[in-house]
Task: structure prediction
Amino acid sequence: MAVLVGKHAPSFSAPAVVNGGEIVEKFSLSQYLGKKYVVFFFYPADFTFVCPTELHAFQAKAEEFEKRNVQVVGCSVDSVFSHWKWLQTDPAQGGIRGVKYPLVSDQPHTIADDYDVLAGAYSFDEDGEPSFEGVCQSYRGLFLIDKEGIVRHQTVNDMPLGRSVEETLRMVDALQFFEENGEVCPANWHKGQEGMKATQEGVSSYLAGHGGK
Result:
């Protein structure tokens, strides 16, 4: 599994559905460079079971992400038309109507491959003919990208394991706290708590004030 932290997020241009129903043929994260942080997450497939709980959970925290100047973007290997249909389907029927952030279509699987979250892989026979081995879906990868396009945090869950949106917000807060204050964030840090200077003296001072040795 590739570690993209500290590197430029792989670029792409792909179809997407935005604002819950508008199809855009060439969607790219480059539009946010210098303007917004991005939480870019992959999910296995439309019209499944764990996935809608995650997509609704991200939408439920839309205001919190907006307050932090963060754009949430989802992606799966489904077609843009599948995304559109799912977005028009009522949640009572397993749909995600009400989700407004962009959903990218990665039908060629190139985006998931570039971010190294594709569950399967292509192989070639002796005649050079390609075939796909494994599950043609993505794992639940999530990438926090700063305004310069650098990946600052990533997680990858197996398909049955839903993510914590609260933890994603915590990581956004930690990154922005570090950028604004120049102090690092210790274990279990949450917004509103004090940070720590990245020196031995700073560590000792922090631990002394929190029952450490």
